[in-house]
Design brief:
This protein is 62% helix and 0% strand. The protein has one domain. The protein is elongated, with a radius of gyration of 13 Å. It is mainly alpha-helical. The model has no long low-confidence stretch (mean pLDDT 94).
């Protein structure tokens, strides 16, 4: 698996979507991540590029790290 559970869940949360109970397909997560980087996901847009995917991945990683930190700090 390329995305950890907390990473793909963060992608759903940041896109204001309902988090599924089972892991989604890789292509779906990549598109969600790319949308956070500016990919519009219109019908004729094709697949997201590296720049939008990279920008979105930075947001996902930051959000996931922050939420993990918040959970750990709350547990103290």
């Amino acid at each position: 698996m390329l995305f950890e559970q907390y990473e793909w869940q963060a992608a759903y949360i940041l896109n204001r979507g309902k988090v599924p109970k089972s892991p989604p397909r890789l292509n779906e997560v990549v598109r969600l991540v790319a949308m956070l980087g500016g990919f519009l996901a219109r019908k004729g847009d094709g697949e997201p590029g590296m720049k939008t995917t990279w920008l979105g991945l930075q947001r996902v990683v930051d959000f996931a790290a922050g939420s993990r930190f918040a959970r750990e700090a709350h547990a103290l």
